Amino acid sequence: MQEQLTGGCLCGSIRYVVRGLPSYLTHCHCPTCRKASGAAFLTWFTVRSSEVEWRGEPLALYRSSAAVERGFCRRCGTSLSYRHESDPGEIDLTLCSLDRPDLLRPEHHTWWESRLDWVVPAVLGALPMFARSMEEGKLPRRRRREQHAEAHLE
Q1: Domain around 20
Q2: Count of domains in the chain?
Q3: Separation CA 48–CA 94 (nearest Å)
Q4: CA distance 91 to 58
């Protein structure tokens, strides 16, 4: 996999470059992500905030909950980012805002218990499906990021 990813919004006003490997790739089925994207689920990849270089127009920001800030293009409305204040060193970017979303492959589904009832496993493949967040009982995100990077560098 290449070590630089590029992407941006639909109208081209905002572009970004990611230098480094994602640590977390998920299809999120939570109601907030569905509403923010207008889709049945939203696919995210997580990187260190310091590894993202934004170009062009600044992101418009919206606080969708007390701890979460979402970024989007104010011109075309493309959803681009998600940042949780509990981990300001990381940022989630929308997978399909990449120029080559086919370079990354989601690893699981989160908030599966909140999915729409017509979203069925047979359509989505055999990825693990977590009822809520994958965080409960799992490695901290930082350690998962290290393990994920190690696996992709070998």
Answers
A1: 4-153
A2: 1
A3: 14
A4: 16
Quote the radius of gyration of the chain (alpha carbons, Å). 15
68-72/60-65 β-pairing: antiparallel
Round to whole Å and give the CA distance between 42 and 130. 15
Report the C-alpha gap between 148 and 44 in whole angstroms: 15
Instruction: Provide the whole-model pTM.
Output: 0.78
Q: What sign for the dihedral angle of Cα 11, 93, 4, 86?
A: positive
| Domain at 129, CATH number | 2.170.150.70
Q: What is the pLDDT of residues 36-77, one digit of tens each?
A: 999 999 999 999 999 999 999 999 999 999 999 999 999 999
Cβ atoms < 10 Å from Cβ of 85: 11
